[in-house]
Write a structure and sequence with these properties.
The protein is mainly beta. It has ten helices and 51 strands.
């Protein structure tokens, strides 16, 4: 156990945005950095880190390590270390899948008890506190809600084309930043004799184990080692491929094991590499379309592909990969980051994103998309893919339909048959996390949980719906995806819900600082302050709309929260815009409203007011029921409500100058959140991409130098055309604060100017990193969202020696040695004192030293007393010289007692660590403690 407190102070620039003046960065740890034993005011014990956590290594290679009792399955959600609500960093997993390591130099932990391991919004560490069981079990009416009317066109019905299938395996490709080449392997399913060139659907699987061997053995290696073979994750979508092929689509599902095995080292978790791989395959298909004779036999057997009509389908991290591929196809990435340098000879008409990640939270705004959110997702359990819808609002023209499809009862893995037990070639499991208790929504066998076959049928049906709408242009399937409330019979018993933004929607009421609210409040989707947050940190339930990013608080993401007490009618909530909005030409007002899971019967009167004060009651919105949910699900998802505007037109309301939305709840006590409201009319317009600049943040590493002040800048690449706005986030070093500012960017401009001044010296210190992140606000495409400047310490670590000060004492007095450095350092330097068994004579025991010293260094006082070398396996404690000093004393306080004892010995060894963290054993030393009581004659 380790106590983490504040330590030495150093100065790093408060980075400036735009025209702000630069500060100064010293090559020292940030204020409140990770403390070391021996620092002023620091108690160097391990008594306040939760179980499973430890600090290892020394100096610049100090690491914060969390070890799971069981291997953590290789999945798509990114494993993160947090201190409270603050992201500490992304740890690197060990080969055993249990230990996760994060470099701790310059890291500020705060209170060790706040440490936690999070993946997809779910805590992984065994010491996580039990969540209160506040969510009610699903009400019967929530489970038996009347099914939607059947859609006139069912996209899940197979077509009439005979299908053929085959595989190709091309030469592997090199991708920037990846040491091992990545395979170019795929399975093709297509129509055998469909007329003309056929649209192409490309599938990309997510992050899963890469290799398997005998029994249950799986690894994340690449290439696969002896006795193991690749897991064929790319063959897991054959059901959907067969369906699309029967309907006339050529389909190809590509393998990405080589990326999965290496993306833990990539700052973007592999998004750019996956984009490059997708575009490498599309480039080959473009070549084969022009020269069929050069194509593999599997490609020649199917009808030729039309590269002007491409649908991308990505599962999990594959979803983020195809989103980036769509963006990169419209706005070229920097050449040094891109693994595909050739021309773009294809047009991506739409994306299907299944349980996707979106670590950068910068969706491609001009490409239509359908995001599937599995209600029982145990991997990307925060359902962060909702940001592919919410994150496009206001960024571009808004013509592209962005659909969110919520599928209660579906888990993460079963969309891929190669990740499904009983279907997979390699070991597979149900990703929904369960313990000894039955989850009322997601445990297998419950009324809401789908079987693997049911889930795969629903998934294939909705993939086909997106294909028919985005690529085929068949607007008859739109009601399945846009919140109209229709069902596809081929989806079987799955109750699939949807809402959308974009298409023929006119923005009306978008919560934010510019709207005035009475009867409720504008709440922040991401804010640690419970008075500002839409959901308090200890609230029951989670919302996909409120998925966390890298900054908290995060300006620009708001909703309207309101609640009402029991009664026939609740108090009205009014939302007033700063300037009038136009709903002219719209047929209905479409609202996205969240109500708590398992709640039933909420209704709302909807009223509009125009600029002259004229009111029009539109009527009572349809009943809003909460989704089936539990404490383990992310079920606070918005239902789409549509209220016709005919009553407003009849009443004479000026729909071109609407100022106020009024909601009056009915149906007992309750609470709700308004995400937004839009003017709506049917149809799917053509989504023509807008010309816009693209922003990519890079990273540079520099040496601190021996003297003087040097100024470095975070590398920012702006390409494309036009201008737009991004929000730039800069963490304040040594604090929990992050500053943010909206900046206008254009190619050739230097508006995102983040200078870092570094003062060089000849003293040893830590590497320092200053990060910067960006998000699109309006008229900008963001590729690489995160980067910064890393200042590398270039001075040698001082040597450490230990000499006795008081190594022979009477009990009650401290044993003392002195650590001495060969030079002053800017950080604490020292090592570990390893306690060794005494070869002959009596050994100093736990009863002979101060209890407080034992608790401080070992976290416990064992009973009965035992020799110090046996307090635990390989016992040691830390000893450091504070920054700015050349020596510090190491003491072992002994206690006097009335027990007559022989002379006792402490035997130990100083272990030091070099600049790369390698241990070096120093000489042994001893301490002698003599009995204070007179010796009996």
């Amino acid at each position: 156990m380790i106590r983490v407190t504040r330590a030495v102070t150093a100065t790093l620039a408060l980075l400036a945005l735009a025209a702000a003046s630069p500060g100064t960065a010293y090559a020292e740890p940030s204020p409140g950095s990770l403390a070391r034993a021996g620092s002023p005011g620091v108690q160097g014990n391990e008594g306040e880190l939760p179980e499973g956590w430890r600090l290892t290594g020394k100096g610049a290679d100090r690491e914060l390590v969390w070890t799971s009792p069981d291997p953590v399955p290789m999945g798509d959600a990114r494993v993160e270390f947090h201190a409270g609500n603050r992201l500490l960093g992304i740890p690197v997993p060990a080969a055993d899948g249990k230990a996760y390591r994060l470099r701790a130099d310059g890291l500020r932990l705060g209170s060790g008890k706040d440490l936690k391991v999070v993946a997809g919004g779910r805590r992984l560490d065994a010491d996580a506190p039990a969540q209160p069981s506040r969510a009610r079990p699903p009400a019967r009416s929530a489970l038996t809600e009347a099914p939607f009317p059947a859609n006139p066109v069912d996209p899940g019905v197979p077509g009439g084309y005979r299908t053929v299938s085959g595989e190709y395996d091309l030469k592997s490709v090199r991708l920037p930043g990846y040491a091992e080449p990545v395979e170019m392997r795929a399975v093709v399913v297509g129509p055998a004799s469909a007329p003309g060139k056929r649209p192409l659907a490309l599938f990309l699987h997510g992050r899963h184990a890469t290799c398997y061997g005998a029994g249950e053995e799986v690894t994340g290696d690449w290439p696969c080692g002896p006795g193991t073979r690749p897991i064929p994750s790319h063959k897991g979508y054959l059901r959907a491929q067969q369906l699309l092929a029967s309907q006339g689509y050529v389909t190809v599902s590509i393998s990405a094991n080589g990326i999965n095995a290496q993306d833990h080292l990539a700052e973007d978790a592999g998004a750019q590499a996956r984009s490059s791989l997708v575009r490498q395959h599309l480039a080959r298909w473009a070549e084969w379309s022009e020269n069929p004779a050069g194509a593999p036999s599997a490609v020649r057997a199917a009808s030729p592909a039309d590269l002007s009509r491409v649908l991308l389908v990505g599962h999990s991290r594959g979803g983020e990969g195809v989103n980036r591929a769509a963006l990169d196809s419209l706005h070229r990435p920097p050449a040094d980051q891109d693994g595909h340098q050739g021309p773009v000879r294809w047009t991506i008409r739409g994306n299907v994103l299944i349980g996707p990640t979106i670590f950068g939270q910068n969706p491609a705004p001009d490409v239509p998309s359908m995001t599937v959110l599995p209600g029982c997702d145990g991997d990307v359990s925060d359902l962060q893919g909702q940001i592919y819808v919410d994150g496009t609002r206001g960024v571009s023209r808004g013509a592209a339909l962005q659909s969110s499809v919520y599928m209660p009862g579906a888990n993460h893995n079963f969309f891929n048959s190669e990740w499904t037990p009983g279907q997979a070639e390699a070991p597979a499991d149900d990703d929904f996390f369960a313990d000894e208790t039955t989850d009322p929504v997601c445990s297998p066998g419950t009324a809401t949980r789908l079987t693997a076959t049911q889930q795969q049928a629903a998934g294939a049906t909705y993939i086909a719906a997106a294909a028919q709408l985005f690529v085929g242009g068949d607007d008859r399937v739109r009601p399945l995806l846009d919140g109209t409330g229709r069902r596809a019979p081929s989806a079987g018993p799955a109750r699939v819900l949807s809402h959308a933004v974009g298409a023929h929607r006119t923005p009306a009421f978008l919560p934010g600082p510019s709207v005035a609210v009475t009867g409720g409040r504008v709440c922040a989707q991401i804010d640690p302050d419970p008075d500002r947050a839409c959901l308090a940190p200890d609230a029951s339930g989670r919302s996909p709309h409120f998925a966390h990013w890298e900054a908290s608080p995060e300006p620009g993401r708001d909703a309207v929260a309101f609640r009402w007490k029991k009664g026939p009618v609740g108090p009205p909530v009014t939302v007033r815009t700063a300037v009038p909005v136009s709903l002219k030409g719209s047929e209905a007002l479409a609202l996205r409203v969240i109500v708590p899971p398992n709640s039933t019967g909420t209704r709302m009167d909807v009223t509009l007011v125009d600029a002259s004060g004229r009111r029009a009651r539109l009527g009572v919105a349809a009943k809003i029921d909460g989704l089936p949910g539990s404490d383990r699900t992310t079920s606070l998802w918005a239902r789409e409500l549509r209220v016709p505007l005919a009553a407003a037109a009849r009443s004479g309301l000026d729909l071109s100058r609407v100022t106020t939305l009024e909601l009056t709840p009915r149906g007992g006590s309750g609470s709700a959140w308004l995400m937004d409201a839009w003017g709506w009319r049917p149809g799917t317009p053509e989504a023509r991409p807008a010309a816009m600049p693209r922003v990519d943040i890079g990273r540079t590493t520099v040496d601190e130098g021996d003297a003087g002040v040097r100024t470095y800048r975070v590398p920012v690449h702006v390409s494309g055309e036009g201008s737009g706005q991004v929000r730039v986030f800069v963490p304040r070093p040594g604090t929990d604060e992050t500053t943010s500012r909206i900046v206008t960017v254009a190619p050739g401009s230097q508006s995102i100017d983040v200078p870092v001044e570094v003062r060089g010296n000849t003293r040893y210190g830590y590497d320092l990193t200053q990060d910067v992140s960006v998000k699109a606000v309006r008229g900008v495409a963001v590729g690489s969202h995160r980067g910064g400047v890393t200042v590398r310490n270039d001075d040698a670590m001082p040597t450490v020696t230990l000499t006795p000060v008081a190594a022979d004492v009477t009990e009650g007095k401290p044993l003392t040695w002195r650590l001495t450095l060969s030079a002053v350092a800017d950080v604490e330097v020292g090592g570990s004192i390893v306690l060794l068994p005494v070869a002959g004579g009596a050994e100093l025991s736990t009863a002979d030293v101060a209890r407080g010293w034992l608790e401080e260094n070992f976290g416990e006082v064992p009973a009965p007393p035992r020799p110090l070398s046996r307090i635990w396996e390989d016992p040691s404690f830390s000893a450091y010289v504070p920054a700015g000093r050349t020596s510090a004393d190491v003491t072992v306080p002994t206690v006097a007692d009335a027990v007559r004892e022989p002379t006792e010995t402490l035997r130990a060894r100083l272990t030091t660590y070099d600049g790369i963290g390698e241990p070096h054993e120093g000489p042994e030393f001893t301490g002698t403690v003599r009995d204070a009581a007179p010796t009996r004659n």
